[in-house]
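Please fill in the sequence for the structure shown.

STRUCTURE ENCODING:
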């Protein structure tokens, strides 16, 4: 029985793709068979884990050209596979306008998967468009990365309102798995005050693990490597491995 988690926040630059790549890799390192789905037309999760955008990808499965199984590729991380994406996904926004139940296409595709996965992690684009809605409809849990900066809570209300609507109309099983604080700088008073504010609002829905601002974490995508392969001793690697453990032990 796989657990489907989508990583979403319509704000860009909050560590969404970094979290998708490194959480998936850390779960795989913990011997959990994991599938990472790149749901963003920018294809950053694809390139960030060292894969190319060529060949069949998520777009081809969504339009019914190929079975979903044909878009799955192994990565350099044992136990971790990926469904890649590229700019083809932009077409979904236009092509699906007249399509019936377009919000459920990804959900239906995932039900056809024969390969058993412990976790399926979906990286969403920085918007509340059709791909993010598809991910929310397909997922059991939502993780919201939130950077420890001044505008952290801006726009979060829109996302949570969308989640509420999706839960009411399309996917009653969807649950807020947690708020993940990212880009935390312990030397910065603002990081501490944002952390306190978020915990005050969301209580036990905030993960205990906090992702630090870390140079090695920022560098790793340019080398096409998750942080556990780029620098396993870095603070970023330690944090994502701790997050994976928190999720496994917490029953998410």
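FILLED IN BY: designer on duty
SEQUENCE:
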């Amino acid at each position: 029985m796989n657990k489907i988690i989508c990583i979403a926040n319509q704000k860009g630059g909050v560590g969404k793709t970094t979290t998708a790549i490194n959480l998936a890799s850390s779960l795989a390192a913990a011997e959990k068979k994991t599938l990472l789905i790149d749901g963003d037309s920018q294809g950053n999760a694809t390139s960030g884990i060292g894969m190319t955008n060529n060949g069949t990808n998520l777009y081809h499965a969504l339009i019914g050209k190929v079975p979903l199984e044909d878009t799955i590729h192994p990565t350099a991380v044992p136990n971790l596979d990926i469904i890649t994406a590229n700019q083809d996904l932009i077409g979904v926004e236009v092509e699906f306008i007249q399509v019936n139940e377009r919000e459920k296409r990804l959900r239906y595709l995932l039900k056809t998967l024969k390969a058993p996965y412990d976790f399926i992690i979906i990286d969403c684009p920085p918007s509340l468009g059709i791909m993010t809605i598809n991910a929310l409809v397909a997922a059991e849990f939502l993780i919201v990365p939130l950077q420890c900066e001044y505008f952290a809570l801006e726009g979060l209300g829109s996302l949570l309102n969308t989640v509420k609507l999706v839960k009411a109309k399309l996917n009653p099983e969807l649950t807020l798995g947690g708020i993940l604080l990212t880009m935390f700088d312990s030397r910065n008073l603002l990081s501490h005050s944002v952390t306190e504010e978020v915990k005050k609002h969301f209580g036990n829905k905030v993960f205990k693990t906090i992702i630090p601002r870390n140079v090695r974490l920022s560098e790793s995508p340019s080398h096409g490597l998750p942080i556990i392969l780029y620098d396993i001793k870095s603070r970023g690697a330690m944090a994502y491995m701790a997050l994976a453990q928190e999720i496994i032990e917490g029953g998410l």
